[in-house]
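Writing this down once: the sequence line spells out the residues, with the fold written below as integer tokens. This is how one looks:
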Amino acid sequence: MALELRQQLKLTQQLVMTPQLQQAIKLLQLCRTELEIVVRQELEENPILEEGVDTLEEEEQDAEKETEEGEAASEEVQELKENPEEFNDVDWQTYLEGNHLSGTSSEMYEGDDDRPSYENLLTKKGSLGDHLLWQLNLSRIADDERLAAAEIIGNIDENGYLQASVEEVVSGSGLAMPVVERALSLVQDFDPPGVASHTLQECLLTQVQQLGMEGSLVERILQHHMAELETRKYPAIAKALEESLDDVLCAARIISGLDPRPGRAYSQEDIHYITPDIFVYKIGEEYVVVLNDEGLPNLRINSFYRNALSGSANVDKKASEYIQEKLRGAMWLIKSIHQRQRTIYRVTKSIVKFQKEFFEKGIEHLKPLVLRDVAEDIEMHESTVSRVTTNKYVQTPRGLFELKYFFNSGINTTVGASIASESVKSKIKVIVASENIKKPFSDQKIVDMLRQQGIDIARRTVTKYREMLGIRSSTERKRFF
């Protein structure tokens, strides 16, 4: 069989995504914070773009500001002419103390309404390591022990546990074993109690010892029956230690009050605030959808470059080509942002139409909804709706929700209708919250209770929803006190 090369002509059609289309799709799936970053970056890189309101509005604002400042200055001059003695009566020392050139001071503001928000002040939260080093600096110990203690503190994680063994600390610091052991004993006496422990058992035992409960039933349970304590087998613990069940329950109550993660009070986790992309207001009997444009720069084309392209300025060919290229990019960016906002508006309006009963009556009336329903309603593709609802949040009279929250699968009911999965999860939470802590409901019991409410659901589905809600099993939820 011979092999040969041949040339063939074939006419095909294929969809090619232009850079402009890729940019539009990218902007569509960005969250609000990411969109602001992209817009700010484009403002820095594209000289055609600029931020601001219309020129006429700017001129009117500047004229009003100059008029107000001129009237205020005239009034002050007139007062000084009429009462010249008041100029000499001014307490300049108090004036200078209350008007600092830089920084902030409590004396700069007359009332609480004039003070800046605490969220706008730069602060640094102290970490667990800073807290331990502060205590170390107050300790009177030898230099080698101080060095070993600093090495130990550097190996403590955010929960307060020591992640290195004594041998590893000795190897890393080059100090003798007795020095490191004394330093470890010193750090373990620091606040918070239980810090620098290797295991949970050691952490809890350290806290018990600092409470002065050596030799107590609490210490014996922690030393010999940690496994039974974790599974709440209190009768077995009472039998093994030859103690009454009531005494074991009292000891377990004390243990439950100890802190298994002593370093969490010094966690460095930052609070992330969510800014909604869109608002839903109830006005009368209707729900109104309003876009949140606050914080987004108002983009426009720079008038200088617009005049340069119109022929009013002498521009060479290369500069003209550069300006036209940047102009196309700027116009496409502005168009893509407007298209993004319109799409979010249409999707949210469609969701409000489908889930009106949820806004009126609550989560129990949330309907099953899929992307195809909204896509067909607004005549868009499902992938577009999926991108729009990702990482987008809406502020409603019922609270703040991600747009994807309103899309749920359906669970059949005994009457032939369907109910949203989120509504079923809400019912499971209500059932668990109302149970007896000494006899919690099993998953099968929850299934039976839901069927009494007309919801036909399998036990494995209840188990899946319970785990998604972060609810533990009935054995782990059981409490003796």
User: Anything to note?
Assistant: The beta strands are 49-51, 278-283, 286-291, 299-301, 393-396, 399-402, 410-412, 418-420. The radius of gyration is 34 Å. The chain is about 55% helix and 5% strand. The first strand starts at residue 49 and ends at 51.
